[in-house]
Amino acid sequence: MADKSKIGKVFPEMHWEVERGKIRELVKAIGDDNPVYLDADEAKKQGYKDVPAPPTFLTVPVMWSGSMLDAITDLDINFAMVLHGEEEYEYYAEIYPGDCLSGSPKVANIEEKTSKSGRKMDIVTIEIAYTNQRDERVARQKMVIVERK
Amino acid sequence: MGLYFEDVEVGYEMTELSKGPIQKVQHVMYAGASGDFNPLHTDDEFARAVGMEGVICHGMLIMGFVGQAVTSWVPKKDLRRFGVRFAGMTTPGSTITVTGKVVDKRKDGDENRISCEVEARDEKGDVKITGRFEAVLPSKNQ
Lengths: 149, 142
Description:
The structure holds 2 protein chains of 2 kinds. Chain A has helices at 20-30, 40-45, 59-64, 67-74, and strands at 14-17, 82-91, 100-103, 106-114, 120-131, 137-148. Chain A is of the alpha+beta class. Chain B has helices at 24-34, 44-49, 59-73, and strands at 17-19, 79-86, 96-108, 111-121, 127-136. In chain B, strand 3 (96-108) and strand 4 form a beta hairpin. Chain B has a 5-stranded antiparallel sheet with strand order 1-3-4-5-2, covered by helices on one side. The interface between A and B is large, with 38 and 40 residues.
């Protein structure tokens, strides 16, 4: 049962150092062979300081830091029954290898819905605003997860 | 190289991208890369126990395909917003095609902004992702 009193709750800040190898692993897993994510010289030619993080990179810190799982556990959500509903990013600055990202997951909304087939679901929206080691805001992430009952 | 604001009009289509067929080993690679180790994506027995026919792909892998299509077309540094809704589950063996088109084009202060809709479908035409992105494009006159 969704605990709506947790709307607005802010979880402890996570810190995550962006590694070049993690960017490479993610684009390799996706099968994205765009050299801008793999080759620093090519990236510089295209106007970047180094290889930039690809558009969906922010899934890495939130999952690998354990921050998302901690939030899911705290909200009494069964991870095995979780489906991803929505994912959204706003980008303010590039993320590069060596950057240290900080952000605190916040529960933006919790609601209960019933699917067309009559199945009950809890819909939880988590938002994270990220800054880097220079305290510059780099991105916002919004995740909507659905717990099947 | 790159795309200019003057090059695109509303209705202009993004270069299509086809990905797959998706192999189960790609789920394992994606789990390791992303840190999402939900066994729903890698363990058939577990997936059946929670009511699926077998493992399903990470939604974020499919969004990754869309991200690949988008930043093959518009440079990453020009991308300002990117959001998707996961419309259906994807199973291994699927081939995903990403399409998109410009739905709005406007001057926003000094910025030349475009909004585009994107979609990912499997080989049967079932929609897996609908989404939207915004980018700020350089102008030939600047």
